[in-house]
Amino acid sequence: MWRGRVDKQPLLLAFNFVYFHAQARCASLGFGPNTDRGLGKSMHTLYSMQASGNCYKLRLAMAQLGVAFRLVDVDTLKGETRTPAFLAMNANGKIPMLKLESGE
Q: What strands lie across the sheet with 97-99, from one edge to the other?
């Protein structure tokens, strides 16, 4: 079994390529972040981190379902999920976090 160093750069480039093309495709169809599709309704707010796989899955599912949402980028590596304001919204301090239209 090979135990050499794995270069993560190609994997990261592939992830970014797929993510941005999927995001562009969803935006061209009128779905995704910051689009209310002309409904004039309030939207869900999704707190996520671009590099997180779990956050990506939720963004992709919401875009595919046509759920309008605002996207707020939170950097867990900088401790933004441990601020008093974030902990007041989500006591466990983890992302992704979905804030519903009703404010819950």
A: 69-73, 44-48, 97-99
Please tell me the distance from the alpha carbon of residue 22 to that of residue 14, in angstroms, as a whole number. 12
Q: What is the pLDDT of residues 11-55, one digit of tens each?
A: 555 555 556 556 655 555 555 555 444 444 568 899 999 999 999
Q: Which domain CATH number covers 94? A: 3.40.30.10
Q: Are 97 and 90 in contact (CB under 8 A)?
A: yes
Count of beta carbons in the 10 Å neighbourhood of residue 16: 12
Q: Is there a domain that residue 104 lies in?
A: yes
CB atoms within 10 A of CB 81: 20
